[in-house]
Amino acid sequence: QVQLVESGGGSVQPGGSLSLSCAYSGFTWDGYVVAWFRQVPGKEREAVSSISRAYGTTYYAPPVRGRFRISKDDAKNTVKLEMNNLQPEDTAVYYCAGTYGGRLVADAMKYWGKGTQVTVSS
């Protein structure tokens, strides 16, 4: 079974940086996509960024474009999300997710990690 485990969450001040990691295992072929989502209590889970295993194609949601950077290390089966210039509105539980394709929406994801809290405050 596919497993994804997030790490690196924590608290930072506005303007600060934080890096999250997603260690994954169990994908049966290389056509998978690893994505980051985030969710605030009472609101829908929203896509943040994604990267494809085979080609390294990346996507960034408009709110994080230019501030966040996603990368992968195939040898270590790890995807990293570097978050810069963090703002209070970035506060959320961040989830790592995986799928073999489809639109970058929560319902299209086949596998999920348990999430890691990111808090941005003064």
Please provide the ordered H/E string of secondary-structure elements: EEEEEEEEEEE
Strand content: over 45%
Report the average pLDDT across residues: 96
| Class per helix and strand makeup | mainly beta
Question: How far is the first residue's CA from the last residue's CA?
Answer: 40 Å
Low-confidence stretches: none
Q: Compute the gyration radius: what is it?
A: 13 Å
Give the tags.
mainly beta, seven-stranded mixed sheet, 11 strands, about 50% strand
Structure report:
The chain is mostly beta strands and 122 residues long. The chain has strands at 3-7, 10-12, 18-25, 33-39, 46-52, 58-60, 68-73, 78-83, 92-99, 111-112, 116-120. It has no helices and 11 strands.
Spell out the blueprint of helices and strands.
Blueprint: E1 3-7, E2 10-12, E3 18-25, E4 33-39, E5 46-52, E6 58-60, E7 68-73, E8 78-83, E9 92-99, E10 111-112, E11 116-120
Short description:
The protein has no helices and 11 strands.
